[in-house]
Write a structure and sequence with these properties.
Helix content: 55-70%
Number of helices: 2
Distance between the termini: 38 Å
Number of domains: 1
C-alpha cells in the first residue's frame, strides 16, 4: 500500500468525524437549513457527501467559532 492509498481514506475519515462532532455539538436553533433529524439521515446515509453538505449548508455562520 502506498502512502497516498493510506492517507486519502484517513483524511476522508477525519473530515467525516469532524462533521459528526460539529453536528452533535451544534444547537438545533443555529442550524441554517433543515432540522437535526434530516441532518442525521443525511450524515449517516450519504457519508462524506453529507459531511461536505453540512460544512457548506448546515453549519451555523459565526464570525468566531466556539
Amino acid at each position: 500500500m502506498t502512502l497516498t492509498q493510506a492517507l486519502v481514506p484517513l483524511m476522508v475519515l477525519a473530515v467525516y468525524g469532524f462533521c459528526l462532532y460539529d453536528f452533535a455539538h451544534t444547537d438545533e436553533a443555529e442550524i441554517r437549513i433543515y432540522n437535526k433529524q434530516v441532518w442525521v439521515l443525511l450524515l449517516v446515509f450519504t457519508n462524506i457527501f453529507g459531511a461536505m453538505l453540512w460544512m457548506v449548508a448546515g453549519r451555523p455562520e459565526h464570525p468566531q467559532r466556539r
